[in-house]
Design goal:
InterPro entries: Ribosomal_bS16, Ribosomal_bS16_dom_sf. By secondary structure, the protein is α+β, with helices and mostly antiparallel strands. It has 2 helices and 5 strands, in the order E-E-E-E-H-E-H.
């Protein structure tokens, strides 16, 4: 079974939250996951300066050691969070992002 770390959408339209899940790569996005690893709420609450992510670092590292493949978005988020290093093996499979300066 090929496991993938990806986001699942939950909540009503215009009020979404994202669950970071370990899930079989061949089933649909919002299907029942093997394990929920974290929650990302992209909206700022009153008085907050930053968006926050609540996740279980130990479980994410466990799934990465077991061979789970993270999606592009998850790789970027884990790199920002310090879980993955910028030169990890997961970055090699990412396409190069174009910026306005390079176009």
């Amino acid at each position: 079974m090929a496991v993938r770390l990806r986001f699942a959408l939950h909540g009503p339209r215009h009020d979404r939250i994202f669950h970071l899940v370990a899930i079989n790569r061949s089933i649909r996005r919002n299907a029942k996951p093997i394990e929920t690893l974290g929650v990302y709420d992209p909206r700022l609450k009153a008085g907050d300066e930053y968006k926050t992510v609540e996740w279980s670092v130990d479980r994410i590292k466990y799934w990465l050691r077991q061979g789970a493949e993270p999606s592009e978005t998850v790789v970027r988020l884990l790199t920002l969070g310090g879980i993955l290093t910028p030169n990890s093996r997961f970055h090699a499979s990412l396409p190069e992002r174009k910026t306005k300066a390079t176009e």
